[in-house]
Amino acid sequence: MFDSDALPPGDRVDAWHEVVARSLIANRMHIERPDDFHASMRAAQLGAAYMSVATYPSLRSLRTERMIKRSDPELYMLASPLRGRYVFAQARRQALIEPGDFVVFPTFRPYEGIVRAGDGAAGTLVCTFPRGLLPMAEKTDGLWGRRLPGEEGIGGLLRNFLTQLAGDAQTQLPGDGPRLGVVLLDLISAMLAHHVEAEERVPPESRQRVLYAQILAFIQRNLADPDLTPTAIAAAHHVSLRSLHRLFHDHGHSVTAHIRQERLERARRDLTNHALGDRPIHAIAARWGFTHHAAFTRAFHTTYGTSPRDYRLQAHGRATPGRSRAQYPWLAASDTAGRDSGRA
């Protein structure tokens, strides 16, 4: 974690150069208003990859041939603006990168980036990873420095993953980093392979992990659809039903159980939401794809140890006769999650 405001104004720019060189790559930066400089960065190691989220004012950054000769760890970088506009130039190619877009480029070639913050600070999410981990590196030269959309398809999946990763950074356990890094590199490889039509160059195990991530995202988007079934999911992803079941079995659960658990969790959250306190329980169940209220009640009781009605009463501080709040230890976690969500 880095926050320039913790330093005296005269030390902030030098400290920013140092933290960027240490966490990302050495650059030469020209800052428009060094006397009023404010920047921050959060960074995390994810196995072989490194991810950072930074905020900073308008600036121009350069990586020169001399800097590359002095030190080059041979990395690729993926950047995605969160706020502001980013003009990137490399190998006689220039692109305007805006929020929702990606740009991927090698650190072993000179480049120039110009960031326009507009009102407030610019924000950028950056991932770095070793050159040798990209399975089709020799086929992707034409993508370096180009605008790559991140609104749909694999690009959208990658952006959602990164956004969630950045938001959940403080809740991750030390052992999560390598596993998340594998998924991140799989998604980056799949996105680049898609743009150069080289999907066959992605290793089979990586393709399976990307497919699994795509299916999980598809399920999340369609939880409210009562027709969300394994057959529909398999058809939407052009795989056999047997392959779909095997994929989920390899991850330790079944498709049907995953859908049911995700629906129950969404319904549980709605039951704790005071803004939905007047909404009938059967309407909440239907909202998340439960077409039979009795089946929803049974599944809810099996999972959470109480009925949806009693759960709602306890969550809203209205205890049912003969029962105390201490009988429901899961409510403490629910309350904490709700307060955290409200602060977010």
From TrEMBL:
Q: Which InterPro entries does the protein's record reference?
A: AraC-bd_2 (IPR035418), AraC_XylS_family_regulators (IPR050204), Homeodomain-like_sf (IPR009057), HTH_AraC (IPR018060)
User: For the HTH araC/xylS-type domain, which residue ranges apply?
Assistant: 213-314
**Stored Pfam families:** AraC_binding_2, HTH_18
Asked whether the UniProt record includes Transcription among its keywords, one would answer yes
Region named Disordered: 317-344
Keywords (A to Z) from UniProt = DNA-binding, Transcription, Transcription regulation
Stretches that traverse the bilayer? none
Q: Which SMART domains match?
A: HTH_ARAC
Question: Key word Electron transport present in the record?
Answer: no
Q: Which PANTHER family match?
A: ARAC SUBFAMILY (PTHR46796:SF6), HTH-TYPE TRANSCRIPTIONAL ACTIVATOR RHAS-RELATED (PTHR46796)
Any idea what this protein is called?
A: Helix-turn-helix domain-containing protein
Native source species: Streptomyces millisiae
